[in-house]
Amino acid sequence: MITHYDIEKFDATNPIVTLGTFDGVHKGHRKILKRLKEIARETGGETVIITFHPHPRIVLNKDKESLRLLSTPGERANLFEKAGIDHLVMVRFTQAFAEMTSEEFIEQILIDKIGVKTMVVGYDHAFGKGREGNFEVLEKYGQKHGFTVEEIPAEDIENNTISSTRIRNALFEGDIKTANHLLDYRYMVSGRVMRGNQIGKLIGFPTVNLEVENSYKLIPGKGVYAVQVEWNGKVFNGMGNIGFRPTISTNHLTLEAHIFDFEQDIYDESITLYFIDRIRDEKKFGNLDLLKKQLHQDREAARKIFDG
Asked: Average of pLDDT values for 26-39?
């Protein structure tokens, strides 16, 4: 996959294009990507995804403080590449860009810069200033400029519409199984390993403390989870905790993981946590011995999840 940051240099054969933020690149998005690739194979074209950075809501100050995203720009790019997309166009979203009407976007970007031959959009897709652009607008310009437009109907799973909002809500509630089912992959959080207070090591459960570098990345709800940890190209089983560690009175939210059968020092290195399932709520214990006893139970619960 070729990632384009300078749209002036874009070049592709018979571009088959879709457009959107694609937060999470979930199952609903995958249906659009699948159709994009089918058309490309049928017409000898190349698949093109146009997306934005930063997220439009950040620039437009819509729910900026509470906004949490399922995927960072790098994670989105990796997911698109794994899906077999040929070109990813990363458009820098600014206040000036937000003022571009749908007609201007079609003429100046899709036609002049991309050279679109086929446009594929999801159900009820909207774009342009005030989100006034839609399927009908695209069709009108397609007839005028010689490109075709196809709309993908809403994707339903068990009568529940797949959406980034639904996945976010599941993650906030700690419902990892539902989130992973709708994403069609294990939800991930990446960051740098920082030094903690060493309490875990003291009671026989050393942990890696994760500093998440992207402030808009969604952290699942508080609790204890079965997780997998990817470091240096290797994946290890473990258990993670998200919360305020009430037993030792931590006053800030922490994300940490105990990696099974792992003794290496990886401070300041980058790791990725993959969330598999939730084990229990976070709770306060009367002393460290009680906490240690519970951690033994948590480890066994996590091992059963992996064995299953």
From this structure: 93
